[in-house]
């Protein structure tokens, strides 16, 4: 099962999404018998790659936030002890 195929939420996979949707329109019955399976596999791979990129960006952002919070706490302790 894939997430909703909205182009604005998946800009990295937009071209494959359009091809996949076009395949379903061109083969209304064939989609049930594997005509669009190759595109589905490509789409799943693209979603995995997109998720990995987002996960890495979120991890980097959380590291920066954690470092800034630790610095603020350190400054607050130094101000309170002086």
UniProtKB/TrEMBL annotation:
<dbReference type="InterPro" id="IPR013892">
    <property type="entry name" value="Cyt_c_biogenesis_Cmc1-like"/>
</dbReference>
<keyword id="KW-0496">Mitochondrion</keyword>
<dbReference type="Pfam" id="PF08583">
    <property type="entry name" value="Cmc1"/>
</dbReference>
<comment type="similarity">
    <text>Belongs to the CMC family.</text>
</comment>
<dbReference type="GO" id="GO:0005739">
    <property type="term" value="C:mitochondrion"/>
</dbReference>
<keyword id="KW-1015">Disulfide bond</keyword>
<protein>
    <recommendedName>
        <fullName>COX assembly mitochondrial protein</fullName>
    </recommendedName>
</protein>
């Amino acid at each position: 099962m894939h997430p909703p195929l909205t182009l604005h939420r998946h800009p990295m996979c937009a071209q494959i999404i359009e091809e996949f949707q076009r395949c379903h329109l061109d083969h209304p019955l064939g989609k049930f018998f594997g005509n669009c399976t190759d595109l589905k596999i490509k789409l799943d791979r693209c979603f995995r790659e997109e998720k990995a990129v987002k996960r890495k960006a979120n991890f980097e952002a959380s590291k920066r936030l954690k470092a800034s919070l630790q610095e603020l706490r350190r400054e607050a302790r130094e101000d309170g002890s002086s």
